[in-house]
Design brief:
215 residues; six-stranded mixed sheet; 4 helices; 25% helix; 18% strand
Length: 215
């Protein structure tokens, strides 16, 4: 049976001086450091047998995908199934103004952290990402595919693949900026999950806008 690898790459650092929970908002681009991170992950995957590169529709993911695709003379295609998770507090600063947990008007959004009640259900995220992964696996049969997307959809997909509960502590996610979560398939069956942080040397001082927050 053939072995196929689907790499789930998280985008690099985003230019976000106001620390907004940007979610699916358009126009949020990589910072200068984020562009360096993207090149690091492209270098990390340069010797891999990449057959296709697909990206979330969001700019930061497409910018991260570009050097990966260029290294393999490929075009980046867009897959809406791997977009960022939806979140009720998109466009706000968590813990400030209308996004304060202490504001009784917001309590209904925090009623069920297992679902979670403040945004797109974890199971829905896993379902759409797995659909994109399986299609990429089939298209890259016997080779490798890259999907560039976002922290939370990657993390809950990994937890699902490893048979773990989808509910988790956001502070303990193993999904750093421009990290690579690799799903190894033998035929159609998932055999192993790998993880690498090729841009780790750039993490000091980097702003991870989603770390510790709700997405």
């Amino acid at each position: 049976m053939t072995t196929t690898i689907v790499h789930l790459v998280r985008h690099g650092e985003v230019h976000n001086p106001d620390r907004i929970l940007y979610g699916r908002m358009p126009g949020y681009r990589l910072s200068d450091r984020g562009e360096q991170m993207a090149q690091h992950v492209a270098d990390h995957l340069a010797d891999s047998d990449i057959a296709l590169v697909r990206s979330s529709p969001l700019l930061r993911a497409q910018q991260t995908a570009a050097p990966i695709a260029a290294a393999h003379d490929l075009e980046v295609t867009t897959d809406p199934r791997i977009i960022e998770s939806g979140n009720h507090f998109e466009g706000q600063r968590m813990g400030h103004g209308e996004a304060k947990l202490s504001d009784p008007r917001n309590w209904r959004w925090f009623l069920n952290p297992f679902r979670p009640s403040w945004g797109e259900p974890y199971r829905d995220q896993v379902s759409r990402v797995i659909s994109a992964v399986q299609e990429a696996r089939q298209a890259a049969n016997g080779r490798e595919a890259v999907l560039v997307l976002h922290q939370l959809p990657i993390w809950v997909t990994r937890r699902s693949a490893e048979g773990k509960p989808l509910f988790h502590d956001p502070r303990r996610r193993e999904c750093g900026l421009c990290s690579v979560t690799s799903l190894h398939f033998v035929g159609p069956h998932l055999a192993d999950v790998g993880y690498a942080e090729p841009a780790a040397e750039l993490y000091a001082g980097a702003v991870d806008a989603t770390g510790g927050n709700l997405t």
